Amino acid sequence: MSHAVALTWRQYRLERRMFWRNPSAAFFNFVLPLLFLALFGTIFSGSQTDLDVIVPGIAGMSVMSTTFVALAMNMVFLREQGVLKRLRGTPLPSGAYLGGLAAHAITNTAIQVSIVVAAGAVLFGVGLPENWLMLAVFVAAGVVCLGSLGVALSHAIPNFDSAPAYVNAIFLPVIVISGVFYDADNAPAFMRDIAEVLPLTHLIDGLSAAMVTGAPFADELSDLAVVAIWAALGTVLAIRGFSWEARRD
Amino acid sequence: MDSAAPAILVRDLHKSYGDVEAVRGIDFEVARGEVFGLLGPNGAGKTTTVEVLEGYRDRTSGIVSVLGHDPAGRPRALRDRVGIVLQSSGVYRHLSVREIVTHWAGFYPSPRDVEEVIDLAGLRESADVRTRRLSGGQARRLDFALALVGDPELIFLDEPTTGFDPAARRDAWETIRALAELGKTVLITTHYLDEAQALCDRVAIVKDGRVLAVGAPAELGVGASSRYRVSWRDGAGDLETRETDDPTALLHQLTSAALARGVGLEDLSVTRPSLEEVYLELTSETATAERGSTR
Fold this sequence. Notes:
Largest sheet of chain A: none
Number of strands of chain B: 12
Radius of gyration of chain A: 18 Å
Structural class of chain B: alpha/beta
Helix content of chain A: over 70%
Shape of chain A: globular
Shape of chain B: elongated
Order of helices and strands of chain A: HHHHHHHHHH
Largest sheet of chain B: 6 strands, mixed
Strand content of chain A: under 5%
Strand content of chain B: 25-35%
Oligomer: heterodimer
CATH superfamily of the largest domain in chain B: P-loop containing nucleotide triphosphate hydrolases
Number of strands of chain A: 0
C-alpha cells in the first residue's frame, strides 16, 4: 500500500471514529432521514402507491443529507475552527485528507441507502431493487453531485453560526419540491418547472426506476445527464472557491 | 545540505494585500539552533512575515529561504521538517490528546515518540481528555505537542502566550526553552518585551512592516541608541537625570565638581536604556517621522 493511500485510510478511520462521537452530527446527517422514513412509511402504510414514492424519495434525501448537508456544515466548521489551516501546515497531502473526508461521506451514504432499501423491502412492500447496477450508478452520481455542491456552498457561508440557516434554506425546500414526500408530477405546474431543474428530482427519478418501477436504463439517461451537469458545476465551484482558511474581515 | 547556512533568510520581503502594504522590506537571518524573536506592536506585519515563511501566504517580492527551500510552493520536504504553532487554530474536538498526537505523528517520516511528546508538552495528566474539555493553557500545550511530534528542525511560534495568565506563560516559556535545549531553531513572534527578553537569543523590532533594529535583547540598546543615562540627587534632594554618549567624561565632571564643593552625589547611577525603552523610543520615533512626512 502506497504512502498516500495509507494516509487516506488513516484519515478515513479517524473521520469514522469522530463521527460516532459527535451525537448531533450523527443525528442530523444520519438518523433524520430514517426517522422520516419511519414516520411517512407509517402514515402511508395503507397505500402501496404512496409507499412506492416515499421509499426512493427518502433514499434520495439520504444521499443529500449525508453529502450536501454533512459536507457543507463540516467544511464551514473545520475552516472556522482553523483545523484546515493547521492541517495545511503538516506534510499530510491535501488529496489524502480530502479523500479520507469523501470516503467517510460515501460510507454514510452507502450505509443509509442500504438501510432504506432493506426497510423498503422488509417493511414497506417495495421489494428488492429491480436494477442494482442502476441503483449504484445513480447513488454514485448523486454523491459526486450533492457532495461537490455542499463543498461549494460552504465557501459562501460566512461563519458556522449561520451555517444551519444557509444549509436548511436550501435543503428543506429542495427535498419538498423535488418530491421526496409525494410524486412531483402531481404538484402545480410552476413547482414542477422548478423541480425539473433541480438535481434531486432527477436523482429520485433514477432511484425510483432502479428500486421500484424497473424502467430501463435507457429511459433514465436524461435524468442521469441532469445530475451529471450539476455534478460538473458543483465540482468546478468546489475547487475554484476552495480555501483552507476562514475569510479575514 | 550546508549546515552553516542560516535556517531562515529573508531579504527585502514585501507583502501587500490589495492596496495595503503589510510588509515593506524586511530583512533578517536566523542561524540554526537560534531562538529568534520578531517583536512589535499588533499590526506590525509579524504574522504576515511568519505566514510567508510557513508557506501560507505568497510574497509580493523579496527573497525567502527556509531550511534551504522556498516556502512558496509548500514543498513536502520542508513541511516534513517544520513545526507550526499558529496564533489560534482549533483541533478535532471529539478526540483525546493522545489520539490526536498519535494521528499527527503519522503525518511525518520520523516522528518523536508520542508519550515523550505528551510529557514534553506537559500534557501527561490530560492525555486521555477529549480536547473540547481542555483549558486555554492546555490547548496551547497541545498546539506545542502537535508542532513537536514530527521532530522538526525549525519551529514557528506565532504569539504563543497571548491571553495567558502569568503561570501559564511561565509554563509555556519552559516548554520553549526545552525546545531550544533540544537544538531546535525557533522563530517566535510576540508583542511582549519580557517574553522576547526571556526567550530570544536575538530580536528584530518590527513596526509598520519594517525592521527597526536587530540584536541580542541585552545589546539592542547599543545598536539602536548609544546613550547612557546618569542620574543623582542634587543638594535639595531632587532627582537629576542627564543622557550622554560619553559617561566617563560626564561622571568625571560631576564627581570632581561634587568633591570640590565637598558634597556627595546621592543615588548616583549609570544605566543603559532597557529593551523596553529602546522599543518605545524606536516605535514612537517612526510614528513621529511618519506624521511629519504626511504633512
